[in-house]
Amino acid sequence: AGIFGAGANMAFDRATLLAIGGFDEALDTGPPLPGGGDLDIFYRVARTGHSFIYEPQFAVFHEHRRDLAGLQRQYWTWGLAHAAFVMKSYAADPPYRPRFRRLIAWWFKDQLRHLARSLLGRRNALPPRMVVVELLGGVVGLFGEYGRSLQRIERIRKAHT
Length: 161
Prior knowledge:
6 helices; mainly alpha; 161 residues; single chain
């Protein structure tokens, strides 16, 4: 979500959410796609010309991952969710497809830059395994994860009707 905020701490005007179709249930609902909803909602709000307000007096506190395996899973999820969001948006927003192609290329180049910094032992670099799992999550996200999540949501809906 980057420049717009964090998914853990966001609020929207109800009319704005209704106008853009609300949150995408295929994102942030657990496996196979436990993330990306914040990226998607911020993108759609911005793309439709709505404004953002930053309010620093509101804060959310959370617990960090307790172990390396949990942190590694988080990095995987970030890569997976980012790529799935990009593929969803690429399909849904044809005028912006060239920008999404550039975003994908930039993201992979940036991940490889992080990996090189890590392998060279540069200061403040992530451990190599975190970069690799985020990168691999991104690869998986490019190849159908959003579609699989849509199918899961449809199965859930059918089971509850």
